[in-house]
Amino acid sequence: MAADRGSAWHLLLSSLGLLVHLDATFSYLLKNCTSDRSLAGEVLDCSGRGLVTVPDDIPADACSVNLMCNLLGQINKKDFGKMSQLKILCLTDNHIAHVDDGSFVHMVSLTNLYMGQNNLTNLTANLLQGLSNLRLLDLRKNKIQFIHGSTFKFSSVLQTVLLDDNHLRQVADIIPVLQLPLLHRISVVCENWFSSSFQSEDFPANMSSSLKVLDMSSSNIDKFSITRRAFPHLQTIDLSLATLKWDIPDETSLRNIIRLHLSHTKLSFKEIQKVLQSTDSLVHLRLNSMDRWIKRGLMVTACRIPTLQVLELYYNHGPNLSAQLANCSHLRELDLSDTHMMLMPKGSIQSMKLLQNLKLKANFLKKVPDDIRSLSSLEILSVDSNSISELGCEDFRNTTRLTELYLSSNHITNLNWCTFESLTGLKILDLSLNQLWELGDVFQTGPQKLEFLYLNDNPLAILEKRSFKGLKCLKYLDVVTKTISRVTQRAFDGLNNLRALRVSFPCYFDSDFRHLQRLENLTLYFSVDGSFQSPPTNHHRAFFHLNSLKMFTFICSGFHHGMPFDVPMEQLQAMRHLEDFTAENAYISAPDPSTFQANPRLKRLTFGKTDLSDLDPELFRPIPDLQVLDLSNSQIKSLDFLKLVELPALTHLTLSNNEITVINETVFQSLPALVYLKLDNNPFTCDCSNAGFIQWVKNNNQTQVVNGYQLTCSFPVAEQGNRLLNFDIQSCWMDLSFLCFLCSTGLVTLTLLTSFIFHFLRWQLVYTFYLLLAFLYDSRKKKKGTAHLYDAFVSYNVHDEAWVYHEMLPVLEGEQGWRLCLHHRDFQPGRPIMENITDAIYGSRKTICVISRRYLQSEWCSREIQVASFRLFDEQKDVLVLLFLEDIPARQLSPFHRMRKLVKRRTYLSWPQAGRHHGVFWQNVRRALETGDAAADDRAELLTGPAGR
């Protein structure tokens, strides 16, 4: 299963081609996918997310979508409805059992469709509707039993169809595929399919397929028979692991076969011989794992094919394999990898004068075979993963055309100066993963055309002066190893054309790069052990001459003991063309703000395993063109430093594995070009402090927060493990500062209003309050209908009590005989005062108000006159008699709105105006009391005294 997934993914990547070259542009947040923008468009990876439906947020302009390894059960019409620009779609390894007809109708640009490892059983007539540009269709490992004759009518340009491991039972089932006009390859690999034979008679008589590659490996068909030219363009046949009878009576019917794969085949020896003898144009033959037939002399038949040029024999473990190759003198490529070869007998391949490519990988050779010395045409030699311990001066003496030599993963301990002396055309030399502890003078004189040299993972101790003096054309050198204890000065002298260098340094080094004027890519690995205290004070001088450097990677392993092995500004001063800088574990604190003062062209910057908690934003000011910034694993707690610097060109920002808990979304205002943001493994706080950031992540249409929906909460404890973007931010939208502003404004306004009312309208409000109480009592008493027990109720202030007792009572009760109600005498003890007042007023025919200044200021007097006035206005009867004991100006009645209104509308009696004529005064009072229940507005003016004061 893993191998199948890997194969599918390999096919997908191969199909991408130039699409893997990213132009560093990304877009928006996706719930279940990550997005890269390539030169051709958007590339989405939604694999391994446990999806049961196709995500609905896939952008319409996507050019590639990978949905493999999910739980999709079916494809609906709307799933890919708007993806007219999609070119590659991978649905491998799901549970798809049904695809709606027309599901791909809008995908007119699709070229590659991968649907392997699903549960499809039928290919319907309209399955591929709309796929007019489809080139590759992968349907491997489904349960397909039936292919409709019109399935491919919409895909006339289809070139590759993979139907391995399905439930097709006979050759006729694949006729709709074979009839494709531009078919290039069909694969029907399966151990249990095709119970019958594969015969040209089973195809329509007029069929002439354009098929070029037929893969029927692992098939159990009884017979492979082609008796007419049904496949005139067939070039490659794979019958590996097949059991069949070969029947090709007319050899001209396969005259175009140039590649034949018979690995692990179950054919008999005679059948294989028959196959090989029936092909007179074979160029490439694969016979892997064919030990049994090789022992019987199969190579004699194979080597007699005059056109054969490429022979693959890996996984054959026969002891006499190489001895049977003597007659294959016309070969150009030979693969003997993993054949358990311990020794290649002399003369085995000596006759192969045309051989250009020889692979002897993964064997047990202890030395370079002697026959190689005679292969003057050899250009590529692979002897990786053997047991070679020594290389001699004669090993490559005559292979002067050799351009590529691979010797990695052997046991080579040392090299003679003459080992590669004859390899004047060598361009690639791989000596990695050996046991070299010194180089000596092997590269003092050449190979002079060598361009790539791999020496990594060797136990080299010292790189001596001018170790590579003779490699004047070298462009790439890898000398990364953990064992180097010293790199001397001028160790790289002579490498005048070097473009890329990967090298390890010990704690101390005194080398320099003064001659590497064309070096563009430098990767330094420093190993720091317990003896390290600090770097040499002048170690930065080694880099003074790197004027062409564009990419500088500085990686330090080990513990610094508190001493920084940093990269000071002086070290970078000469690198004015630097575009990419990486420092891992190179600083114990944030670098000096002036570090990149001389590097204005820097576009990519990476710091790792560094404490950047005290990062000064001034560090970025000299590099305004920065596009990619990676500050992962750097103990960063806040992004506020981004507010203090402008990075207008920054598109990629990676901050994984830091200590960020809260992000203020305003920091991204200083990053107008940001399209990619990665924040994995940060301890986010899920509360309102992150509400703005959460909304920004969801709503911004420019920046893609990679795996945004997978970001988790660490705080508070109740939210721990929950998704950050699932936090409900609706309760956070009330702005606390604005709320405080409203509250404080309201409080101030209320205070001012209260003060104004108290100062200017105090008495009017008091009067209004009493008026309301009187109204309530009036309404209640009116309903009771109380009988008149008194002729008049006398309302007076206690300070006027003497006048009432000495002047009023003797006359009104004693002389005139009126029955008066006085509160001190007639109120019922124990009852509420207001009830007594109300009962007294409504229980009397009239109410006499004895008014004075003290009366107006009395609370109870005010209530009494209010109840009386309500009775007056409610019953519209003459029930109120006003007696003024003092002359009170109208302005002093202003706070008492009801009193002033009564005085203006009604005639009243004035004691001061009566003067000495008290008899007339009391006679007028009598007349007022004798007045009946006539309407107040209609009664005659019975009272004397001025009105409307």
Automatic annotation (TrEMBL):
<keyword id="KW-0677">Repeat</keyword>
<keyword id="KW-0325">Glycoprotein</keyword>
<protein>
    <submittedName>
        <fullName>Toll-like receptor 23-2</fullName>
    </submittedName>
</protein>
<dbReference type="InterPro" id="IPR035897">
    <property type="entry name" value="Toll_tir_struct_dom_sf"/>
</dbReference>
<dbReference type="InterPro" id="IPR032675">
    <property type="entry name" value="LRR_dom_sf"/>
</dbReference>
<feature type="domain" description="TIR">
    <location>
        <begin position="788"/>
        <end position="929"/>
    </location>
</feature>
<dbReference type="Pfam" id="PF13855">
    <property type="entry name" value="LRR_8"/>
</dbReference>
<keyword id="KW-0472">Membrane</keyword>
<comment type="similarity">
    <text>Belongs to the Toll-like receptor family.</text>
</comment>
<keyword id="KW-0433">Leucine-rich repeat</keyword>
<keyword id="KW-0391">Immunity</keyword>
<keyword id="KW-0675">Receptor</keyword>
<keyword id="KW-1133">Transmembrane helix</keyword>
<keyword id="KW-0812">Transmembrane</keyword>
<keyword id="KW-0399">Innate immunity</keyword>
<dbReference type="InterPro" id="IPR003591">
    <property type="entry name" value="Leu-rich_rpt_typical-subtyp"/>
</dbReference>
<dbReference type="GO" id="GO:0005886">
    <property type="term" value="C:plasma membrane"/>
</dbReference>
<feature type="transmembrane region" description="Helical">
    <location>
        <begin position="760"/>
        <end position="777"/>
    </location>
</feature>
<dbReference type="GO" id="GO:0006954">
    <property type="term" value="P:inflammatory response"/>
</dbReference>
<dbReference type="InterPro" id="IPR001611">
    <property type="entry name" value="Leu-rich_rpt"/>
</dbReference>
<dbReference type="InterPro" id="IPR000483">
    <property type="entry name" value="Cys-rich_flank_reg_C"/>
</dbReference>
<dbReference type="GO" id="GO:0002224">
    <property type="term" value="P:toll-like receptor signaling pathway"/>
</dbReference>
<dbReference type="GO" id="GO:0045087">
    <property type="term" value="P:innate immune response"/>
</dbReference>
<keyword id="KW-0732">Signal</keyword>
<dbReference type="GO" id="GO:0038023">
    <property type="term" value="F:signaling receptor activity"/>
</dbReference>
<dbReference type="InterPro" id="IPR000157">
    <property type="entry name" value="TIR_dom"/>
</dbReference>
<dbReference type="Pfam" id="PF01582">
    <property type="entry name" value="TIR"/>
</dbReference>
<keyword id="KW-0395">Inflammatory response</keyword>
<feature type="signal peptide">
    <location>
        <begin position="1"/>
        <end position="24"/>
    </location>
</feature>
